[in-house]
């Protein structure tokens, strides 16, 4: 069977890309090893995703945002970053950028379900489920996807969206910078006595990080990072013991806690592919850039990269060029690198400082936070990007930074 594009992996990146490619008139074959039932009704995987304004607009354009129950979408009105027990905090206030929110928090399984629904209704997409891709063969003229059951599909271009540990990337000989942080992130929803005021908190403690993502009502997603051994101990705790242990780490910020969702553990590995294309192959989503979740950008970078790739493929299509030709792929590679490399590097360096407990590292991270706070224009421009407002609007509506509370 022949397709214009063969997409390997129907996670958020593969689904969104397929829908975008179908919208520019391309015929897409989409392959995933999961069953139709688990793709159509994904289980809650504990991830609560901070969706930036730009990503929200892209999802809206696909018709996916409208499929998410508004009662399950929680705005982030404010964000604060704390270093250890120090009273100093870096403060991101979207009002400084003329916006009412920094982004929205949505559960990953709802994003996956919404993107599945929009891909499912596009007639240009053929979805193959229970379809384990075992090989990708590329020649000068075509790409071929081979499945475990022996079937073979041909197209002009293959697009790999097969996780940060992409086998397709590896088989193609594309190197990747992989950073195992030697830590595990535990995520889980909790109800709390005090309101969160829709503020997201990032707390870098000396014995591991902690984050609070405000959900609807008096509920938050509580994210904690530990070494693997400690994480195993926390995963084995009862809900009561875990909540009891977690509350004092938040220093009274949310009052008493109660677990309301299942705890999930994710080993932390950052991945950056040396290049995002090869002959008749493009890498997207985590297969291209697997971010440390601390900056909440893996999904966001993924979906914004797809926008770029589809734009370049559209230009190639209009010009009557080969979709697997290097021109469009090189342009995507350049744009996606520009978008992702600075934050990827910054995150790696910050996490290097925060996983070290030496005195020089403590001094360096305090200095880094203060420098970021005093560099108000740079911080505000970053915020404008998150909230997707123009820099001109930001400068016109500039307000002085408020004084930060101690807790
Ligand atoms: C705890 C946590 C919190 C996060 N929070 C945020 C956040 O706040 N904001 C943000 O932007 N991002 C966040 N992320 C990152 C985000 O979840 C990922 O970037 C995103 O899910 C990656 O999507 P993907 O489609 O690239 O890959 P995946 O979701 O990994 O999907 C890959 C798909 O490929 C399929 N597959 C793989 N190999 C094959 C094969 N050989 N044959 C067939 N199918 C195959 C798999 O079955 C799967 O369906 C977070 C991540 C974690 C772990």
Helix content: 25-40%
The CATH class name of the domain at 2-73 and 114-178 and 270-347 reads Alpha Beta
CATH fold label of the domain at 2-73 and 114-178 and 270-347: FAD/NAD(P)-binding domain
Shape: globular
Tell me, rounded to a whole number, the average pLDDT.
87
> Which secondary-structure class do the elements indicate?
alpha+beta
Number of strands: 20
Cα distance spanning the termini: 62 Å
If classified by CATH, what would the architecture of the domain at 2-73 and 114-178 and 270-347 be? 3-Layer(bba) Sandwich
Which ranges are low-confidence, i.e. pLDDT below 50, for 5 or more consecutive residues? 390-407
The Cα radius of gyration reads 22 Å
Number of helices: 12
CATH superfamily descriptor of the domain at 2-73 and 114-178 and 270-347: FAD/NAD(P)-binding domain
- Beta percentage is 25-35%
The profile of the biggest β sheet is: 9 strands, mixed
């Amino acid at each position: 069977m022949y397709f214009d594009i063969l997409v390997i992996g129907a996670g958020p990146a593969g689904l969104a890309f397929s829908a975008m490619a179908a919208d520019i008139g391309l015929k897409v074959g989409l392959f995933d090893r999961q069953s139709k039932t688990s793709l159509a009704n994904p289980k809650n995987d504990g991830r609560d995703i901070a969706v930036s304004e730009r990503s929200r607009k892209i999802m809206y354009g696909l018709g996916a945002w409208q499929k998410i129950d508004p009662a399950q979408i929680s705005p982030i009105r404010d964000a604060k970053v704390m270093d250890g027990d120090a009273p100093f905090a870096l403060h991101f206030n979207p009002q400084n950028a003329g916006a009412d929110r920094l982004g929205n928090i949505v559960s990953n399984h709802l994003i996956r379900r919404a993107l599945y629904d929009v891909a499912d209704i596009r007639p240009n997409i053929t979805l193959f489920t229970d379809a384990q891709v075992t090989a990708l063969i590329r020649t000068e003229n075509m790409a071929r996807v081979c499945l475990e059951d022996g079937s073979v599909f041909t197209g002009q271009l293959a697009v790999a969206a097969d996780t940060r540990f992409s086998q397709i990337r590896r088989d193609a000989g594309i190197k990747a910078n992989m950073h195992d942080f030697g830590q595990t992130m535990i995520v889980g929803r909790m109800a709390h006595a005090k309101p969160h005021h829709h503020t997201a908190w990032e707390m870098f403690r000396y014995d591991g990080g902690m984050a609070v993502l405000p959900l609807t009502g008096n509920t938050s997603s509580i994210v904690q990072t530990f070494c693997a051994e400690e994480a195993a101990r926390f995963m084995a705790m009862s809900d009561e013991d875990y909540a009891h242990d977690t509350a004092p780490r938040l220093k009274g910020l949310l009052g008493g806690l109660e677990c309301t969702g299942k705890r999930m553990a994710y080993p932390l590995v950052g991945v950056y592919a040396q290049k995002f294309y090869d002959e008749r192959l493009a890498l997207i989503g985590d297969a291209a850039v697997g971010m440390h979740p601390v900056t909440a950008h893996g999904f966001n970078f993924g979906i914004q990269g797809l926008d770029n790739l589809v734009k370049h493929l559209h230009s190639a299509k209009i010009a009557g060029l080969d979709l697997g030709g290097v021109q469009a792929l090189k342009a995507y590679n350049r744009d996606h690198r520009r978008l992702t490399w600075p934050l990827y590097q910054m995150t790696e360096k910050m996490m290097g400082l925060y996983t070290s407990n030496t005195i020089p590292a403590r001094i360096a991270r305090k200095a880094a936070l203060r420098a970021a706070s005093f560099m108000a224009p740079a911080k505000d421009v970053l915020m404008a990007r998150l909230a997707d407002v123009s820099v001109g609007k930001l400068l016109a509506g500039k307000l002085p930074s408020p004084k930060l509370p101690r807790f």
